[in-house]
């Protein structure tokens, strides 16, 4: 069936929504291995993996199944590549506003358990008018955003050990997109410690001039590995299990994430954001030093001030699309511990205002304030000038949007991009007026430690 308009996809979605449900009890390891094996053998796919202790934020993992279409988004348009139809040879391009309206309609269709879902991969440059489109791009020509439309969603309940999915028919898929070469750049860290320290000084100059209060500066690493992305992911999952991990595959380009951070969660009209701001290193083999590091995080005036600024920023972002009086801080400045770092975390909630839609919500909170700084716009403008290249998926987002009123997006930190043997990842941190250059440089390395260990990179 040729796809002449977005509405033509609805026929395919309705068919997939009636496929029979299957429920089976399997182990978590078996679910993850099943998902990784499928990703290895398909040119497109997504796994959203909740790892670590089972809890309210890490109970369910999802996998895109029965892919129906890909949407490639640029600034003003979206191009549809449908699978298994005549449209695979003649893509359909529509205005971004038309696509946004279609997504909003899809979001309320109510296809039920394990039904169709959208899996977006948003680069930092998506919805971001403050980025120069001519910046060098080290991450292999990904568009601003990719949206994978899946006919089914495999849903794994970690607490119950229960997998819910639908019988998946064979679906013809288009060939992988042509490989694109990364921007030529030397391997290793983009800046030396001295060069990074100079950029910190420039950020602090802007702070002293009153342009902003805090900015999240990052540095990029390029390297090579013989490991396939799924092997790296298995190691990363063992080393640093996190609640918002996952993989996204677009042809030969993979995004491998060990993210601990949620950007925004939507359940009906209920909204929640969980910003991370504040980091101290772990000392896993020295309990006394580890406890001291955690105590330093809890009592540091610098870390607390930085955290408070970013909580206020997220309250403002959610407030732009929330009903009056509904935004509140549910948890403030609690410590979460991961394999290599301790973090300060808060929880902010609200209720979506009448008349606000999904794209309004995404535009209000994206990119996350914890990876830009405050005020957000002034920080993004300065970061573009200092970093001098596109971030790509780093500090962007992936997640899912279903037809039952649910959306959940992470922030792509602790994340690498791999194409063939070449890998790219970033480490960053919030710079404030009294930041210590040596400590900030070390923090960027600490945040990349699990990735570097999984890749067996010493740098």
TrEMBL record:
InterPro entries to which the protein is assigned, alphabetical: ADC_synthase, Anth_synth_I-like, Chorismate_C
Domain of life (superkingdom): Bacteria
GO biological process: L-tryptophan biosynthetic process
Gene3D superfamilies according to UniProt: Anthranilate synthase
A Pfam family hit: Chorismate_bind
Residues covered by the Chorismate-utilising enzyme C-terminal domain: 194-447
Name of the protein this chain belongs to: Anthranilate synthase component I family protein
Organism: Sulfidibacter corallicola
């Amino acid at each position: 069936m040729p796809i002449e308009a977005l509405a033509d996809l609805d026929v395919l979605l309705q068919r997939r929504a009636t496929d029979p449900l299957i429920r089976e009890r399997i182990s978590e390891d078996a679910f993850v291995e099943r998902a990784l094996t499928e990703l290895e053998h398909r040119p497109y796919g997504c796994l959203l993996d909740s790892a670590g202790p089972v809890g309210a934020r890490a109970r369910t993992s999802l996998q895109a199944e029965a892919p129906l279409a890909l949407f490639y988004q640029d600034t003003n348009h979206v191009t549809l590549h449908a699978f298994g139809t005549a449209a695979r040879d003649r893509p359909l391009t529509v205005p971004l506003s038309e696509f946004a309206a279609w997504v909003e309609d899809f979001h309320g269709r109510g296809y039920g358990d394990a039904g169709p879902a959208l899996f977006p991969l948003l680069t930092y440059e998506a919805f971001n008018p403050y980025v120069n489109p001519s910046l060098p791009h080290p991450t292999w020509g990904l568009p601003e955003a990719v949206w994978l439309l899946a006919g089914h969603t495999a849903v794994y309940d970690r607490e119950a050990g229960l997998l819910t999915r639908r019988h998946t028919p064979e679906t013809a898929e288009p060939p992988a997109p042509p490989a694109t070469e990364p921007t030529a750049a030397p391997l290793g860290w983009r800046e030396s410690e001295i060069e990074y320290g100079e950029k910190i000084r420039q950020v602090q100059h802007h702070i002293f001039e009153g342009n902003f209060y805090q900015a999240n500066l990052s540095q990029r690493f390029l390297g090579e590995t013989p490991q396939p992305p799924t092997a790296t992911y298995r190691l990363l999952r063992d080393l640093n299990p996190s609640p918002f991990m996952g993989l996204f595959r677009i042809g030969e380009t993979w995004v491998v994430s060990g993210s601990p951070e949620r950007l925004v969660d939507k359940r009906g009209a209920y909204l929640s954001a969980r910003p991370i701001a504040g980091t101290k290193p772990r000392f896993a083999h020295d309990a006394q030093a580890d406890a001291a590091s955690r105590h330093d995080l809890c009592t540091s005036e610098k870390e607390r001030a930085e955290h408070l600024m970013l909580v206020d920023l997220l309250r403002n972002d959610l407030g732009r699309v929330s009903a009056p009086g509904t935004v509140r801080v549910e948890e403030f400045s609690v410590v979460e511990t991961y394999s290599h770092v301790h973090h300060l975390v808060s929880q902010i909630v609200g209720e979506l205002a009448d008349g606000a839609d999904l794209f309004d919500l995404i535009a209000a909170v994206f990119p996350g304030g914890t990876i830009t700084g405050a005020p957000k716009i002034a920080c993004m403008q300065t970061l573009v000038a200092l970093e001098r290249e596109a971030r790509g998926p780093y500090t962007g987002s992936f997640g899912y949007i279903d037809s039952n009123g649910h959306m959940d997006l992470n922030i792509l930190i602790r994340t690498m991009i791999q194409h063939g043997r070449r890998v790219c990842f970033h480490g960053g941190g919030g710079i404030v007026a009294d930041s210590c250059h040596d400590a900030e440089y070390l923090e960027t390395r600490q945040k990349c430690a699990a990735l570097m260990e999984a890749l067996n990179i010493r740098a």
